[in-house]
Design goal:
Helicase_ATP-bd, six-stranded antiparallel beta sheet, helicase, helicase activity, 14% strand, 28 helices, nucleotide-binding, ATP binding, Rossmann fold
Length: 797
């Protein structure tokens, strides 16, 4: 399977392989039989990489290094099947060479890059060999257009659509993909002399209704018929090419510039040193990296000079793990920072970054601690003096508010934040600084575009989707016009810059088993429905994850066998029932207390309030604790509400301190209210308790625990009727679950913590094993026999 793309014209490969400055650095991806190129002197650069047994019972595709030099293109090609009135780009030359060798080619390049030229050469090459070519298109209009174009270049051209059939036995036949599928199912005789099939707009695999047609055609295509696939919008082209290579059982040629191990397993030291030097050079900070990235001291995984054993070495790209919320925001922040630096280099600041979330506004701004956009100390001094004068009217305590401190720190680096959650005086100060040109980048919500006359030189949209209060949706044209209109200053800028950030929609299988498909398969004696399903693009994605899933399954089963047995005098079933009640309580408490803290009645989280917490690092069971203080969401600390608590434990954990007969204590700072509190009780420590005395607090908490005060849920009085009305069911549920836990024999057991941890760990392992077994199992293929039985009962087959 060959993937070709122009680098000088901005093709996909030029975007992925950083540092590619010429077409000669862009590699091909081709598939063909291994034997054809093993002894070919013209392909000495194609070095094999040892593969492994296929996951679906057939040889898995092998990867080959392809660094095709097209300097001697004419000599390598020989007599061409077709001449072009223009000089081909390097990516076109590589694709033409592979087509001339009988390979399948996937050309992934942007619109107007020249993909059709490769298809035309494939057609001419098929005719030169005395065969015929099929050109498929997704819509009739495109078929008719290609028919008119090809009649001017080829002598014998036909077209077959649902409406018209002209010269169906021509050398070049243009048809819709549905027509080709029908011909493949019925083994049409006209397919006997086909030398190539072109799939135009192959990204239609993503179409929910028609995408399965493309998969069926590729699967049913005879393996000796080369395919040319064209698309401008396939971000995961390598994954798609791998699936085609697996399906057609051909070797995949891919770019691997420096093979660290040859086909005999010998380590290539020279190649290792070369790629190591290039990686170090690429990772070296630029001269102004101090401003951009700072002195990071984080520890990365998988790199370094340690002698640890490598883990999970395998061929091909590893499946991507989904990003967590924090990782996603960090990645988005890094991309925005790169865009801002690019605008600064092009002298296109100031810029307004529209963000459709207050929280993300702050996270993006606070996530660039080393970005300094001010011109020097003189400008920084002006900003400092202005902010000092602006906030001088505030009380001294108000000037120390986290919001004011955070906004001041940002402004001294030329960064601003503007949204409805800021104090009016803070918003006004930011607006004045922006109008004077001291704020170079302003992170703002869309309200900044409504009537506020603050034009910038550039506008960046952090997203093209927003939440309108009820659902997420794409921006309306009027909203885009309103916000992008902030770019361009009258009398100062001759042009404006508007940038929108988004990501490609990857190709995803739309394969689905239908009764019509089964009826068509019944006509084929050598095909079964299971064969079609196992070769689908949908199955390929699962198959790529099977080695990791099997390895994880073995590890989990071993871990499950190593767990100690639960020996409880009260009965193992009691602890399992108790654990279910506890876990259900956590889910309900998350919504209840997270919402309660964001109301005017958050005073219930006062200092001295007795609570039960559960999100401790080394303990899965809930533990008694007392609140030492609380913190609302802020820009300088956290974007979620947190509490500081002192926890009393029965056994020590890392970071805990002994508290005499009361057990052990550990102080947890910034414990999230929404994901850390299990129960807010109706009791608080008495007045006069010394909160600096951990021993005294522990003794007092043990006394409260013995008195049952940690088992009484918070009673919401008349002042909390609004919350009680809105969350009435949740409140009742929390109380009922608390009563049910109190009735359990395990609630007062001194081994509750140890046994609960064991039961929860067992449940987590069992759940993970069940998920992995389902992923490995071919359960999806069971739909085929069930539907076949129904068809037989109806006498259709």
């Amino acid at each position: 399977m060959s993937l070709s793309s122009p680098s000088t014209t901005g093709g996909l490969l030029s975007n992925i392989y950083a540092g590619s400055s010429s077409d000669s650095e862009t590699s091909d991806y081709t598939t063909d039989d291994e034997s054809e190129y093993t002894d070919d002197e013209d392909d000495d650069d194609d070095e094999p990489v040892v593969g492994q047994k296929g996951l679906l019972g057939r040889p898995e595709t092998q990867y080959y290094c392809v660094n095709t030099d097209v300097t001697n293109f004419r000599e390598e090609l020989g007599p061409p099947a077709m001449e072009f009135p223009f000089e081909l780009d390097d990516f076109q030359k590589r694709a033409v060479l592979r087509v001339s060798h009988g390979d399948s080619v996937f050309v992934a390049a942007h619109t107007s890059a020249g993909k059709t030229a490769v298809a035309e050469y494939a057609i001419a090459n098929a005719i030169k060999q005395g065969g015929r070519a099929i050109y498929t298109s997704p819509i009739k209009a495109l078929s008719n257009q290609k028919y008119r174009e090809f009649t001017e270049k080829f002598d014998s051209v036909g077209v077959i659509t649902g409406d018209v059939s002209i010269n169906p036995l021509a050398n070049v036949v243009i048809m819709t993909t549905e027509i080709l599928r029908t011909m493949l199912y019925r083994k049409d005789e006209s397919l006997a002399n086909i030398k190539t099939v072109i799939f135009d707009e192959v990204h239609f695999v993503n179409d929910p209704d028609r995408g399965v047609v493309w998969e069926e055609c590729i699967i049913l295509m005879p393996p000796d018929v080369p395919m040319v696939m064209l698309s401008a919008t396939v971000p995961n082209y390598r994954e798609f090419a791998d699936w085609v290579g697996r399906t057609k059982q051909r070797t995949v040629y891919t770019d691997k510039p420096y093979l660290l191990m040859d086909n005999k397993g010998v380590f290539n030291t020279a190649a290792y040193r070369k790629i190591y030097d290039e990686i170090r050079a690429a990772e070296a900070p630029p001269p102004n990296a101090k401003q951009v990235a700072g002195k990071g001291k984080g520890k990365g995984k998988g790199k370094g000079k340690g002698k640890g054993k490598g883990k999970g070495a395998h061929r091909g790209p590893a499946p991507k793990q989904p990003l967590t919320g924090e990782s996603k925001i960090r990645l988005e922040t890094q991309k925005l920072q790169g865009m801002i630096k690019a605008l600064e280099a092009d002298d296109k600041l100031p810029a307004t970054v529209f963000v459709f979330s207050r929280v993300r506004c702050e996270r993006y701004a606070m996530g660039m601690p080393h970005l300094d956009l001010l011109s020097g100390s003189a400008e920084r001094s002006k900003v400092h003096v202005f902010l000092k004068e602006s906030f001088s009217k505030l009380d001294e305590t108000d000037r120390d508010l986290p919001q004011i401190q955070a906004v001041t720190d940002l402004a001294l680096r030329g960064i601003g934040v503007h949204h409805g959650g800021l104090l009016p005086i803070v918003k006004e100060a930011v607006e004045i600084l922006f109008s004077r040109g001291h704020i170079k980048v302003l992170f703002a919500t869309e309200t900044f575009a409504m009537g506020v006359n603050m034009p910038a030189r550039s506008v960046i949209f952090s997203s093209i989707r927003k939440h309108d209060g009820s659902k997420f949706r794409y921006l309306l044209p009027t909203e885009y016009t309103q916000m992008s209109g902030r770019a361009g200053r009258r009398g100062l800028d001759s042009a404006l810059t508007t940038t929108m950030t988004s990501k490609h929609t990857p190709l995803q299988s739309q394969f689905k088993l239908t009764f019509q498909m089964l009826l068509q398969m019944a006509k084929l004696t050598h095909w079964k429905a299971e064969d079609l399903m196992s070769r689908s693009y949908l199955e390929n994605a699962r198959a790529m994850q099977l080695p990791t899933a099997r390895r994880d399954l073995l590890r989990l089963k071993k871990r499950q066998g190593d767990l100690p047995k639960l020996e409880c005098v009260l009965g193992e079933e009691d602890m399992h029932r108790y654990a279910k009640l506890e876990l259900k309580s956590r889910h309900m408490a998350s919504d209840l207390y997270g919402t309660l803290f964001n109301t005017d009645h958050k005073k219930v989280f006062c200092r001295g309030r007795l609570v039960m917490v559960w999100s401790l690092p080394d303990i899965k069971a809930s533990s008694p604790a007392v609140i030492l203080g609380s913190s609302p969401p802020s820009m300088s600390t956290s974007v979620v509400a947190t509490v500081d608590v002192l926890v009393v434990l029965r056994k020590p954990v890392p970071g805990s301190s002994p508290a005499g007969d009361s057990g052990y204590t550990v102080r947890i700072k910034n414990l999230p209210v929404k994901s850390g509190l299990l129960l807010v009780t109706n009791h608080a420590l008495p007045n006069g308790v010394d909160f600096s005395d951990a021993f005294g607090l522990a003794r007092e908490m043990r006394r409260c625990e013995d008195a049952g005060q940690f088992d009484e849920p918070l009673e919401l009085g008349k002042n909390l009727k609004q919350i009680q009305t809105e969350y009435f069911d949740t409140l009742i549920g929390v109380k009922d679950l608390t009563k049910a836990k109190m009735k359990s024999k395990c609630h007062r057991c001194h081994l509750r913590q140890e046994h609960f941890d064991l039961v929860v760990e067992e449940g987590q392992i069992e759940g993970d094993i069940e998920d992995l077994e389902f992923k490995i199992d071919d359960s999806s293929l069971y739909l085929a026999p069930a539907r076949e039985r129904m068809l037989r009962e109806c006498w259709w087959i």
